[in-house]
Design a protein that fits this description.
With 149 residues, the chain is α+β, with helices and mostly antiparallel strands. It has two domains: 61 residues, Arc Repressor Mutant, subunit A (Orthogonal Bundle), CATH 1.10.10; 81 residues, Gyrase A, domain 2 (2-Layer Sandwich), CATH 3.30.1360. The strands form two sheets. Strands 3-4-6-5 form a four-stranded antiparallel sheet. Strands 1-2 form a two-stranded antiparallel sheet. A hairpin with a 3-residue loop joins strand 5 and strand 6. The chain starts with a helix and ends with a helix.
């Protein structure tokens, strides 16, 4: 069932410029999938969907590149175009983004699977990156700031 739903989600985001989880839920329900917001949110994370900017200024869901090289390029593009600043607070890295961009940048960051990152949490304009230790957080901050240069 999950694989079928994932395939349907990929089909829908390629066919329609879906900009919100609510729109995606509506399309899925119209096709007979009884889904909740939390299920769709998990699906988006598992499928590693990101949001890309449309010419009209809105964002739409898009499947991430499957190749490692494509994923790294995608990460660099999303990260460098959405992040304002990066700071360390003990073993936590706080990443400030433009309003509405934190989740896309965080999804790109999660896709990179950095070994020293324990987990991430994104809001509207802030990402909290929890690292294994203080040294790892400092290294992440340095690496992230290089992406911004």
């Amino acid at each position: 069932m999950k694989t079928t739903r994932h395939n349907k989600i990929l089909e829908l985001i390629n066919k329609y410029p879906i900009t919100t989880q609510e729109e995606l839920i509506d399309y899925l329900r119209a096709d007979g999938y009884d889904v909740t917001q939390s299920t769709v949110s998990r699906d988006i994370k598992q499928l590693r969907l990101t949001k890309t900017l449309l010419p009209d200024g809105k964002y739409r869901y898009q499947a991430s590149p499957s190749s490692e090289k494509g994923a790294k390029n995608n990460f660099h593009t999303i990260f460098s175009s959405s992040v304002i600043s990066v700071e360390t607070a003990m073993n936590i890295v706080v990443v400030k983004t433009f309003s509405g961009m934190a989740q896309a940048a965080c999804a790109a960051l999660d896709m990179m699977s950095f070994d020293v990152i324990v987990g991430t949490l994104a809001g509207d304009d802030t990402i909290m990156v929890v690292c294994k230790d203080i040294e790892a957080a400092q290294k992440c901050t340095e690496d992230f700031n290089r992406y911004l240069a």
